[in-house]
């Protein structure tokens, strides 16, 4: 080849390189050619992390081919999207679709980190607990205790979930479980001992027994000889120690005691208490001055947490204190008034609502779920910098019905909420962009039924009627799948 030809080829390729290089650089930086406007625009992207992870992605009803999907850390990214509005749909065979109208912006990824698809048909797992009226999973989900009435007998049964082996551990006459839905049987942290509220001789009492039948069943009133017993709870760290509120003879105010069921020793922990709760760091209590204090489990090393009253309203022993840590606490009064203290950028105590039934902190302490008979709300305790952004102390109404809401629980990602309404078990997301996606889990045949979610094991327990019998069941949520799911 003549030298002039080689030079010509070189200069041709050099000119092509100069022409293409800007295009390559533009493309690598997210620019795309808009054929409608005849210009280059800075494209955007969409990132999705879903459960299950094997899904189909549709944009404006067009299935996105696998080669166009960038899969990193179990998330899927669609790059090079022209800014504008799209209909995004995530689907998987056998699951309900998730769908939103989204907006893509130049140079920005629109992110959805908590997309959940539920099976179209729930897989019920039946437990051999027929006739269950109320039920209570143990802290780590290995056992379930349940209340059952057999003719005139009040009975407590339990079963090991893996073995499904129901056994009666207590039976007695002229005893009943309180009708109040807020009353709970409680396991100790070793998942062996049980303390259950009961109505006995028209008085509130507490039954202490063991699933392993290694202690004799007894009543707290008989063991302590104290009156007006309230809020009996197992110690968070001592296996056989029960804390409770009571009044000593001649006293008007309520004191906090603890009982060692092995030694039968009764110890006064601290006096003049309205209500109390445990946290991982110790004991928290509100005194008669409505000030919040903390101490160790013995009542020593008392620290004043708030320097003004938690509320000016009357706090009775029926009030419920719910503590996450020394910076975040909630108080529900007997009339349903909810007060929340949040020490973040500022230390604030605010009233959030009336007629509140319950609250639940997220495990990371960044959100507080609270609900009434007809409404579910969330308070964001810290600034949330990922999409969708939330401000500190921002509240959002998640859903509202004219009919009653019941069985409200966080899902394990704390971006979804379980609830029941008119026989239906549902889950709803917090993400309000476009709309909050809500999916039905199961349509029960009982109008009112107890349910609970064991987030550690991903089990939603509930009672379902089969052939006239109340049967305890659970559904795995998330559904158990293969290793790569």
Write the topology of this structure.
Elements: H1 3-28, E1 31-34, E2 39-42, E3 44-51, E4 56-59, E5 62-63, E6 69-72, E7 75-81, E8 84-91, E9 98-104, E10 109-116, E11 125-130, E12 134-137, E13 143-150, E14 153-160, E15 167-173, E16 175-176, E17 186-187, E18 193-200, E19 203-210, E20 218-219, H2 220-224, E21 227-234, E22 241-247, E23 255-260, E24 266-270, E25 273-279, E26 282-287, E27 292-295, E28 303-304, E29 320-325, E30 328-332, E31 338-343, E32 347-353, E33 358-361, E34 367-371, E35 375-380, E36 394-400, E37 406-410, E38 416-421, E39 424-429, E40 438-443, E41 451-454, E42 459-466, E43 469-476
Spans where pLDDT lies below 50 across 5 or more residues: 35-40
CATH class of the domain at 43-116: Mainly Beta
CATH-level-4 superfamily name of the domain at 43-116: Carboxypeptidase-like, regulatory domain
> What is the averaged pLDDT score?
89
Outline the biggest β-sheet.
5 strands, antiparallel
Question: Which class best fits the helix and strand makeup?
Answer: mainly beta
- Cα gyration radius (Å): 29 Å
As an assembly, this protein is single chain
Distance between the termini: 60 Å
The best one-word shape is globular
Q: What name does CATH use for the topology of the domain at 43-116?
A: Immunoglobulin-like
Indicate the proportion of strand residues.
over 45%
Proportion of helical residues:
under 10%
Number of strands: 43
Helix segment tally: 2
